[in-house]
Specification:
Blueprint lengths: L2 H18 L11 H8 L3 H13 L3 E4 L3 E4 L4 H21 L4 H20 L2 H17 L4 H19 L6 H18 L3 H25 L33 H4 L11
Antiparallel strand pairs: 1-2
Helix pairs in contact: 1-3, 1-7, 2-3, 4-6, 4-7, 4-9, 5-6, 5-8, 6-7, 6-8, 8-9
């Protein structure tokens, strides 16, 4: 690897992390001058980083306008969840789970319950993502972990639009806790079996939201925060999804379904 490509990879890694943590949101324009100065790299190196991020589906170049954080499509959502359905159950079933990883999962899912009660949506989203990062790390494969890092960054782009529906993240807090409860009881097969229906429900909700939401606004100016988009239909979206009952709207599962 050349010095140039190494610098570009480091810049891409940093920008990928900022996207993954919700600091750069869909539609944000990535101005070359400002971003190159902030990252202390040349514009040529930044363009190479953009190329790497473009291969991940995280940014898109619009002719005569610049480079923007990508806005996920329906096909992106389907591809993301197909990949996650292949990797995460296998990691749970056959991966190496260390005491430290199990402690991280336990603490993260417990914190998510507290954040849900406090209405701290962004923190709840952060720890939910940490759960899936930790599950991916159980594979012990550098290549798979890097693939999941890129995938989870794309997930965060998709989830950004769900900020309009606070119940979106809260309804999956119990799913994550249920998975971890099974792992704490060394019931891997049961934990792995929870993932496909969980992901199918999340995918269905995201696709429905994308179909019902308003047309995307114009791309944002350089690294500006995304405005909240008002849509009175969003409040009724969750209850309109087939297969999602009232207990999922509240973010809770019925009594007796938490333990394995």
């Amino acid at each position: 690897m050349s010095k140039l490509s190494g610098a570009a990879e480091r810049a891409a890694t940093r920008l990928r992390a900022e996207i993954s943590h919700g600091q750069l949101v869909p539609g944000t324009k990535l101005g070359e001058h400002r971003l190159a100065d902030r990252l202390s790299i040349s514009r040529n190196t930044l363009r190479e980083a953009f190329h790497l991020l473009g291969e991940d589906g995280l940014v898109e170049k619009i002719p005569h306008r610049g480079v923007f954080v990508a806005r996920p499509t329906h096909e992106d959502v389907r591809e993301i969840y197909q990949l996650r359905r292949m990797i995460e159950p296998a990691a749970i079933m056959w991966g190496h789970l260390t005491d430290e990883q199990l402690r991280t999962l336990d603490e993260a899912t417990t914190a998510a319950l507290d954040y849900r009660e406090a209405g701290a949506v962004s923190k709840m989203a952060d720890v939910n993502q940490l759960v899936h990062e930790t599950i991916a790390s159980m594979t012990g494969s550098t290549s798979l972990i890097q693939l999941m890092d890129r995938t989870l960054a794309r997930v965060r782009l998709v989830f950004h639009g769900m900020a309009e529906i606070p119940d979106f993240h809260s309804m999956f807090v119990d799913d994550n806790r249920h998975v971890v409860t099974c792992l704490l009881q060394d019931q891997r097969e049961e934990a792995a079996a929870l993932i496909p229906p969980y992901f199918a429900r999340a995918e269905s909700l995201l696709l429905t939201f994308m179909s019902q939401s308003q047309n995307d606004p114009e791309p944002l100016s350089d690294e500006a925060p995304a405005p909240r988009r008002e849509d009175t239909r969003l409040g009724n979206l969750v209850v309109g999804i087939p297969g999602i009952g009232d207990h999922h709207v509240s973010g809770r599962v019925p009594d007796g379904q938490i333990g394995c």
